[in-house]
Amino acid sequence: MAYLEQIGFLILLGISGWLIYKRVSFIKRNINMGQSYKPKGPSSERFKKMMLLAFGQKKMFDKPVAGIMHFLIYIGFVLINIEVLEIILDGIFGTHRLFAPVLGSFYSTLINFFEILALGVIVSCLIFLIRRNVLSIDRFHKSEMTAWPKLDANLILIIEIVLMFAILSMNANDQILQNAGAEHYTETGSLFISEMLIPLYNGMSVEMNLLLERFFWWIHIAGIFAFAVYVTYSKHLHIFMAFPNTYFSNLSAKGKIKNMDDVSNEVKIMLGMQQPEGDAPPPSSFGAKDVNQLSWKNLMDAYSCTECGRCTAECPANITGKKLSPRKIMMDTRDRMEDAGKHGLENGKFLLGDFIKEEEIMACTSCNACVEACPVSINPLEIILELRRYKVMEESKTPPEWTAMMTNIENNFAPWAFSPSDRFNWANELKSEN
Amino acid sequence: MPEEIKIPTMAELAAEGRNPEILFWVGCAGSFDDRYKKVTKAIIRILNKLDINFAVLGTEESCTGDPARRAGNEFLFQMQAMSNIQVLDGYGIKKIVTACPHCFNTLKNEYPDLGGNYEVLHHSQYLQTLIKDGKLKIAEGGKFKGQKITFHDSCYLGRANGVYEAPRAVIEALDADLVEMKRCKTKGLCCGAGGAQMFKDAEAGNKEINIERTEEALETGAEVIAAACPFCMTMMSDGVKNKEKEKTVKVLDLAELIDLN
Ligand code: SF4
Ligand code: SF4
Fold it and tell me: What DSSP character marks residue A367?
């Protein structure tokens, strides 16, 4: 029987590991579709930023209530995983509470601590569920947050509650079994939170408690494996991606737009500052129409997005009812990557047009509010600008007023139709006014 | 008769073999827009009053290319940038002061990639330094003492470059009562003009961005909405007009506040 359990466990572990491996390779391949990119700023500074934002969740506390609850779930998640290590080892070796004899009384302190965290996670998840579904918080109810994204957000919270409940129920049954003096059930001392669940399972036969303890053990660990696989398909991937994503984000001033070095060479030749190099091929295309023309960091951004909508809630265009939503830009980029990864880039679809519409990118004021708001250093603006570059330089499709503005700059060296010789007229006006 | 105001150009100074301490980059709005020309003039009056060794480029100045780059036309931007860099380097310019956050951002952050390296200050920073150094003295009990003033953060000054304190320091130096809007500093709401939106109609929505922002500014009960950007100036002035409040609420640039005080 114990052998069967062990074999079952190993099979489960193997399948989960394999599924995760496949999925991670797929995501890696997708991100690698992107163009080269080098983050600006020393790595020590970027490391500091990662520690503050990803590890310390600094930006989450811009909204203190959500920040504290999110932090509880986060440390709950990280620390309870220490217990998962024990559970996995127990599963492999067919042992029960492997660490208990080694750690002695500290073990019960540790488990009690985990139980408090588990309770914290349950409470936070419940509040989050209410916030999301009952309270009318605008950013959770935008047009991009229907169907799967909405379900995804709720599923995660429900799964976490189930997992935590399983762990507490497992401990409750364990305690009943300890009191009954069942074989293998090592003394853990009182576990204060799960103790409260004992009445639920008390008064049954020892066999029933044994069955229940095993049942919740399996629910918990199988749930964790399933969750680990699920995460790779979900916005929940941010729990891992937040780290590399903040580390690789730029430290240069937010107002700086990436220079197109290809264009610099052409312009230098046009201005006679540089001789054309005999056989240098002209750049193939300007800006981005599809995901493979964005940088790999833009693509990593898309896989890091938590769909929290803090960006969209700050976006002036979105606030005033325009179609643009920076969160949707990130979700569309991810959707297109998934689509291209599965069906190939050449499946007749493009990021610009099939996913993101012209109307959306044209509404952006490049105000950087979205970039500032994002808790995991995502830059939706960069993608918007690359798509605009494609529109303007490859398709020559601009709103007529922009065409006029650009013609003015070209001919009059100002965005308005004034004669360049009148540029200094203000000086004479001032002199005569004084 | 007051002393005649001096507006030396780089060409004149170069002919005399002189170098200015700062180049005042006027910008297209500062040169052509009737409203923002007043800001340019206020700055020139301040520079004259303090006897600062400055110069302007006059007709040799040209659009930095900011709106072209943000609209997606990298060619036009780089053409503008490279010819401007040729002019600036030709005169050996080291330090630039400008009253336009868009020019400021482009000159400071984007020209270095194309070989143009300068120390660039926004006029709010320059004014703050002049006040701090005691060069620019603010008359006690001036016109704006105790007046409610709110400051509208320009995106290209604030979020884009992290300049939040300098403009506020200037307002506080006037002994004014600085009141903040609900959304300010890192969370400031755009006026709606950046990213080349200034030059086209907004996409369909349910409100104009500048109206949303003006409402927020009016909610503070301020008598003056202080701005530090030509585009914000236009957007906020239009907003105040739209709300028919132009009789009671003024939109003024930081330099004008100092000049009028
Ligand atoms: S930069 Fe563009 S997308 Fe981002 S908040 Fe501003 S207007 Fe919205
Ligand atoms: S881009 Fe950032 S702020 Fe916007 S939804 Fe994604 S994680 Fe949230």
Answer: -
Q: Is the CB of A369 under 6 A from ligand 1?
A: yes
- State the distance between the two ends of chain B, measured CA to CA, in whole angstroms: 22
Query: B67 and B156 in contact (C-beta within 8 Å)?
Result: no
- Helix, strand or coil, per DSSP, at residue A26: helix
Amino acid, res. A122: I
Q: What does the CA dihedral A137, A138, A143, A144 come to, rounded to 10 degrees? A: -70
> Between A and B, how many residue pairs show a Cβ–Cβ distance under 8 A?
217
The region of weakest confidence among A96-100, A371-375, B5-9, B55-59 is A96-100
At position A154, the amino acid (one-letter code) is: N
Instruction: Indicate the average pLDDT of chain A.
Output: 90
Model pLDDT for residues B80-98, shown as the tens digit of each residue? 999 999 999 999 999 999 9
Q: Using the beta-carbon criterion (under 8 Å), do B73 and A267 form an inter-chain contact? A: no
Cβ–Cβ of A366/B159 closer than 8 Å?
no
Whether A322 is in the pocket of ligand 1, judged by its Cβ within 6 Å, is no
Q: Which pTM does this prediction carry?
A: 0.93
Strand partners of residue B96: B23, B120
Residue to test with chain B: of A366, A396, A410, most B Cβ within 10 A:
A366
Which amino acid is located at A123 in the chain? V
Q: Which two tokens stand for residue A337?
A: 């990557």
A270 to B79: CB separation less than 8 angstroms, yes or no: yes
From CA B71, how far away is CA A365, in angstroms rounded?
10
CB distance A142 to A309 below 8 Å: yes
Specify the residue for token string 């709103």.
A399
Strand partners, A244: none
For B76, name the nearest residue in chain A, comparing CA atoms only.
A410
Residue B125 to residues A44, B162, B213: CA-CA distances in angstroms?
A: 29, 12, 24
| Neighbour count for residue A96 (Cβ, 10 Å) | 15
Q: For ligand 2, what atom is nearest to the CA of residue A306?
A: 7
CA distances from A147 to A151, A228, A298, A308 (A): 6, 22, 25, 16
pLDDT at A97: 85
Q: Do B212 and A319 touch (CB under 8 A)?
A: yes
Place of tokens 């003056």: B224
Q: B54-55 and B95-98 as β-strands: parallel, antiparallel, unpaired? A: unpaired
